[in-house]
Amino acid sequence: MRREDCVYTSCYCEENVWKLCEFARGQKTPPLEELLVVFISNASRMVPLWRQRSGYGDQPVVWDYHVILLQVGLDSDPQVYDLDSDLSFPCSMELYASQALRSDRSLRPAYHRRFRVIPADSFLLNFASDRSHMRNADGSWKMPPPPYPPIHTAAAQTQRLPSGFLRRHQHRGPAAARPRHGALPAPAWRPAQPNPLRFLLITISRQQRRSDDVPVLQPRQPGWKRLGRQAAAQADRLPSGQQELPGPLVPFTPFQR
């Protein structure tokens, strides 16, 4: 799956990932059963990500939430598909975690990322959005919509907000992003413990792709050794020159969507 083969619309990451899953289902490459959809957000609805195409230099973009696609094959390293990233497409999970996610240890608690992992086939079946959240009060678009009709499926005909899933929060500060949501199953949000790379490596190695329950395992538990201690150690190290995000987020790139 090449970047140029993908359907992409800026600020509609959940729909971009749905289209990636649809493409994989039709082409059978990569196999749909190897794909996991990962939502990244938190209670503050402020999650910094680096190496985003809408960012500037080494400054993070602060999203209300972001969605990426993981490929987890038995015979290959985990791969990340993120059409909003300027990293290679796809790129290794290790590279994405170290360059785009980086460590939560460098962030104030309000910016710590939490993750929800959903099997791609479940996402295809249950996601829907009428895009009403992307309209201004006067009916105009906050950002131009995708050229295709809003996504509806037999199981999800209208936009709905499942209990506990991406609840709306009042944002303050120039980097506050607009809430967005679609309709999906609602497995519990899990914190990255102790950091995103450790969490995702463990999760995707143990994830039963037919279950919405994402285990949070400690590094000392069985199975950790297979994940690669070098990758975990790299995730613990802060990138050179990285500083703790202050509050409010004025020094960083506001992303008005």
From TrEMBL:
Keyword Nucleotidyltransferase among UniProt keywords: no
InterPro entries attached to this UniProt entry: N_Gln_amidohydro_ab_roll_sf (IPR037132), NTAQ1 (IPR039733), Prot_N_Gln_amidohydro_ab_roll (IPR023128)
MF terms in GO: protein-N-terminal asparagine amidohydrolase activity; protein-N-terminal glutamine amidohydrolase activity
Domain of life assignment: Eukaryota
Documented EC number(s): 3.5.1.122
GO CC entries: cytosol; nucleus
Region Disordered, residue ranges: 210-257
Enzyme superclass (EC): hydrolase
One Pfam family, short name: Nt_Gln_amidase
All copies of domain Protein N-terminal glutamine amidohydrolase alpha beta roll, residue ranges: 8-166
Keyword Cytoplasm: no
Keywords: Hydrolase
Cited Gene3D superfamilies: Protein N-terminal glutamine amidohydrolase, alpha beta roll
Catalytic activity reported: N-terminal L-glutaminyl-[protein] + H2O = N-terminal L-glutamyl-[protein] + NH4(+)
Family, similarity comment: Belongs to the NTAQ1 family.
Assembly information from the UniProt record: Monomer.
Function summary: Mediates the side-chain deamidation of N-terminal glutamine residues to glutamate, an important step in N-end rule pathway of protein degradation. Conversion of the resulting N-terminal glutamine to glutamate renders the protein susceptible to arginylation, polyubiquitination and degradation as specified by the N-end rule. Does not act on substrates with internal or C-terminal glutamine and does not act on non-glutamine residues in any position. Does not deaminate acetylated N-terminal glutamine.
PANTHER family, A to Z: PROTEIN N-TERMINAL GLUTAMINE AMIDOHYDROLASE
Name under which the protein is recorded: Protein N-terminal glutamine amidohydrolase
Protein source organism: Tetraodon nigroviridis (Spotted green pufferfish)
